[in-house]
Amino acid sequence: MAETADRYAEMVRAKTSTGALTPRTAEVYVRDVLTFAELAGGARVLDDLGGQDVDEVLLAFARKPDGRRRAGVAPDRRVAGPVQSAASQARFRRSLSAFFKYAVVAGWVQLDPMGAVTVRPVQRGGLRAERRALTAEQAEGLLGAARGLAETGPGGVGGRADQRTELRDGLIVLLLAAVGPRVSELTAANAEDFFVNGGTRYWRIFGKGGRTRDVPLPHPVAEVLDAYLAEGRALLDRGREPKALLLSWRGRRLARGDVQGVIDRVLARVEPGRRRGVTPHGLRHTTATHLLAAATDMDAVRRVLGHSDLSTLGRYRDELPGELEAAMRVHPLLGPVEGRRRG
After folding, report:
1. What is the pTM assigned to this prediction?
2. Which residue among the candidates 284, 285, 290, 302 is catalytic per the annotation?
3. What distance lies between CA 201 and its chain's CA centroid?
C-alpha cells in the first residue's frame, strides 16, 4: 500500500508540470491517497483489498478529525456526528476512484474494488452540521471584531512593527464573510486584482475552470482594503512576493492553511454569547445564506460565489431561525399580514 501510494503521488505531481493537473488538484489527490494508505494499512498488499476493505476506510475517514484545522476557537461541538464534512467525504471517494482506475491500468490490481463498495452517502450521513452558516448575530459579532481589529491598524500595541498583522487579519475575515470567496481564491489574490470603476471598488476573482468574476466590495470592506494596501501590506513586504495581496509576517504569500488561524484569532475577540467556531468554507456558506435570505437575486448570488449553475446554490444555503415566519409575515401575494383582524 505505502509503495503504490508513493508511486501514485509521484505520477500525480508530475502531471502538474505538463498542465494536466493544477497544483491544487494534485495536492488534494496526493493527500487523499496517502491518507487512504494510512487508514488501510501501509504494509497491506493493494490487490488484496476488496469492497468491504474500502468501506471500512471510507467510514474511518468519515470519523477522522480534520487535521487542517489549527488549535484555537473550537468549532461548534453541539452537533453530534463525525468530524469530516459530507463534501470532504465525497471528495475523498472521488480521489480513491481515480487512484484505483490508475491502479488497474498500471497493473497494480486486477479488479477495481470501488465497484463493490456498499457504503452510500446516506449511510455516511450526519456528517454535515445542521448549520454551517453563522446566524446574523454571530456574523455581526465576527464582522465587528474584524473591523475593530483593522481599526487598531499597524499602530497597535505589542509586537514588532514589521510583524503586525491586524489590518491583514481584519481584511481576511471581512472578505470571506462579505464576499464569500473560496479560500484558494483568497490566498491567490494579487494586489492588482482590485480596481475602481465608477467609484466602486471591485475584486477580480480568478476562480475554478479559468473563469473570472468582478465582485463589487461593500464600502466598509473597501475601506479596510485601502488601509491595508496603504499601510499594512508595506510592513509585511520583504520583496519576495511583489504581487501577492496577503503576506505572512515573513513576507511570503499567505498559505491556505494559515487562514483558519486568522479566523480563530478574530473569533477570540468576539463576546462569548455571539461566538461560534467557523471555517473559511463556513463563511462562504454564511455569505450565500444571508444573501439568499435577504431575497437577493439568485443569479447575482451565483455570480458572487463563482458558480456556473444555479442548482449548486442549494448546498450553500442553510435555514436561518425565524426565516420562514418572517417570510410569511410579508407574503408576496397577500402583502403584510401580521396583525390583521379576522373577518
Report:
1. 0.62
2. 284
3. 23
The x, y and z cell numbers of residue 272, run together, are 462569548
Task: Tell me, yes or no, if 202 is annotated catalytic.
Answer: no
Instruction: Tell me whether residue 307 is one of the annotated catalytic residues.
Output: yes
pLDDT tens digits along 136-163: 899 999 999 999 999 886 655 555 555 6
Q: For 42-57, what is each residue's pLDDT tens digit?
A: 888 888 888 888 888 8
How is residue 100 written as a grid cell? 484505483
Closest CA to 306 of 162, 201, 209, 173: 209
CA 142 to chain centre: 17
For the question of residue 316 being annotated catalytic, the response is yes
Identify the CA nearest to 292 among candidates 175, 140, 284.
Answer: 284
How far is the C-alpha of 289 from the C-alpha of 284, rounded, in Å?
Answer: 9
Plot region of 198 (φ>0 → left; ψ -120 to 50 → alpha; else → beta): left
Q: How many Cβ atoms are within 10 Å of 183's Cβ, its own excluded?
A: 20
Tell me the C-alpha distance between 69 and 219, whole Å. Answer: 31
Distance in angstroms (rounded) separating the CA atoms of residues 299 and 306: 10
Nearest to 15 by CA among 127, 122, 102: 102
